[in-house]
Amino acid sequence: MKKVMWILSLIPLIITSVILQFMPEKIPMHHDVAGNVDRWGNRVESLIFPILILVITLFWFLMIRFYEKKSLSVKSEKEQMQAKSAAKFLGIVGIAETVMFGIMHFFILYSSWKQAVTGAENAPVDISKISCILMGILFVVLGNFMPKAKKNSSAGVRTTWSMYNDNTWRKSNRFGAIAIIAAGILTVVTAALVSGITATILMLVYIMIAAIVAVVYSKKVYDLEKSLKVD
């Protein structure tokens, strides 16, 4: 899984390095809220995002390695399973995020090339809208894997209440997964219907609501678990 993640993260850098040879020297590097170019820059600046993708991949790689080593150092079988599960889930997060950023970068690259060639001031692609759609898909993908992750301190619904025991973790993350999937679907639908800026704001609202209801639900599950234990 780590090899796949690294290969996918290198693709944007390799393709961008090739494409830049055929792009104009100066290309759009930033747009205002209305989508108009407010800064032009050297085409080499297009390599910044692919390099950033590699840095993010390194972060996930180190996190995965941490849990893989932990699975070998802990003594109990339960802790080993939890560490392996966390490493696997983080690998999925890393791959999904790498693919999302890669696709986003290619849209940005295409938009910059198109504007540079035509001289248009307005971006031919609404990057905010594309980003929201990709983020929505990412939420749906990760939401489908959340319930499969065992209790850990890095991924999933991690509150004092959800971490109480395996049952509170399982129920909290199953509900949290439903909430994040719903937020993802709403984000995709919204992005397809409204402007990118509006879609971005609504996406943040959806995620905030999903996070709040997931935390509240984890407290409810915890209280129920505690009451059953007392009884």
Entry summary:
The protein has 231 residues and is mainly alpha-helical.
Characterise this structure.
The relative contact order is 0.11. The radius of gyration is 21 Å and the shape is flat. The chain has a two-stranded antiparallel sheet. The chain has helices at residues 2-19, 48-73, 77-118, 127-145, 166-193, 196-230, and strands spanning 26-31, 37-42. It is built from six helices and two strands. With 231 residues, the protein is mainly α.
What is the fold's blueprint, element by element?
Layout: H1 2-19, E1 26-31, E2 37-42, H2 48-73, H3 77-118, H4 127-145, H5 166-193, H6 196-230
Antiparallel strand pairs: 1-2
